[in-house]
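Supplementary Note 3. Input sequence used for the single-chain structure prediction.
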Amino acid sequence: MTTGEWIVVIVLCALSLSVGLRFTRKASRGGVGGYFTGNRSLSWWAIGLSNTATYSSGGGAFVMLVLVFGLVGNWFWWGSWIIWMPLVAIVWARMWRRMQIVTTAELITLRYGGGPARLARKVYAFLLFSISILVIGYITGFFAKTIKPLVPLSEVQILLIFGGITAVYTVFGGLIGVVYTDIMQFGIFLAGNLVFFFLAVPQHGGWAAILARAAAARPRVLQQLPPTSQIPLLTLVLLVVQGLFFAGSPTAGEGMTAQRFMAARNEKQAMAGQLFNSFLSLSLRTIPLIGLGIIAISLFWTRDLLAQVGPAPAGMPVLTDPAYAWGTLIKITRLPPGFTGLLVASELAAFMSGLSSMINWGSSLLVNDFYRSLRPRDSPRRQITVSRLTTLGLFVFAALVSILWVKGMVSWFLFINSVMVVFLLPLSWLRFFWWRFNVWGELAALVLGLPLSVLFWFILDFQDKPFWQSTGLLFILSLIVLVGVTLLTPAESRETLVAFYRRCRPPGWWADIREAAALPPSDEPSSGRLVADSVIGILVSLGLVLATNAAFVGDWLRFGLGLGLAGGFAFWLMRRVLA
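The predicted structure, written as discrete structure tokens, is reproduced below.
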């Protein structure tokens, strides 16, 4: 990169620092609650943009998926996201907001009672903290690989420079600083990749030629819908099942996503924010990246394809790692002076938004669920100091994990987004919808979940077997263990359950508890209404992704049907849930 391009990157870093640090004083108000929930002041648009930015921790990952798996590659996450995103908006967002808690681990001592609940809360907080470290390691490793073809920096240097800058504004700005920095960074990320896509198309022969080369190189690579040989029917079924339960995933419907709901001004702002997030995440942010992935298919081969498909077409370069596709595509495209710096800055913006959210969320668990129970009388000022030191310490620890452990980005993408959390997914329904579920079932999930995921994926090497095998076995095993342990152990006390119901008002099997709670009449939607609204939301999401893929191959009938489906049902849904 030239000096001018480095200046562009430096300007982005300076902007991120200035926006994050601008909220230092606001983050210092209200102790831990103010620092980690932004004094519950977020509007729907800030929630939607910030959550989308957090999920976009690396645009190169989407390019890699399309290069490796073809146009259907995004169904590895679309398959579950079109289900869980509207479900979370309609069912869970309002519950997280109304409980008035700081972390999702805090739910444990509301839902269950006594010493076991206090132990389970700490175990859960430690588990989520460990997951945050793994995710930070993954996004850092991916970011390093993505920009490696463009910048002469090692992974350690990338961590020290860019990760250090992110840690600084996260430490001082708290959640509110993270959110508004995310918004700026998402704009840079989306704009940079959109312009890059439109600049790259004519230079590589025009869109018709790109599609023709891609189809000639790899038959059926432009197929829009699964199943395919790499995403068979059983894998697709498992992804849909995961989507029904993904509200309990620490990397999606729970975790940082729920943290934004807890910080919302009110329940409707939380719901609207998640609906806005669904549109941005499922479609808008992917548009330039899917296009760049198809260009990469037409230009590159990978080492994995040598084994699976055969030799590369004559003259087509072979990438040693598909994660290099985005950066290599930039190198072979003629761009205006300084534009490479803007693209590195756009990828950096995505990395920083994901990293800052994970650091803030991970440290909130240590501070709110460990430290505050040990030092309940500390002043708000001291709580803020401890929160900032914890945030910094988490970043240093996660950086070491990234450098020493995270390798093989396709495998890690699947592990982080699905396998790692499968054993925990039934918790999302059992905790909220079934009064009989107890703390011992919760503890069974927390103690066994992450070790079993690592055992299946890395030690027993399920990463080299069909994807549905590891996820299916873990999910079925989880249901058996959690329900079995619950039925073999005592139920929670009636007093605990009534107190939780009054605080959360969950739907589902709570008839006796609901009657005992004796709450005044409200306009709370019935379970049937929630199911109907959820189905409408899923149809909106399905229409969005159908239209998104169809646009790239000129399937205008499917594009029109998808867009009509999304638009019509979206209008109906907003009138039903937000009016």
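The mean pLDDT is 88. The chain is about 75% helix and 0% strand.
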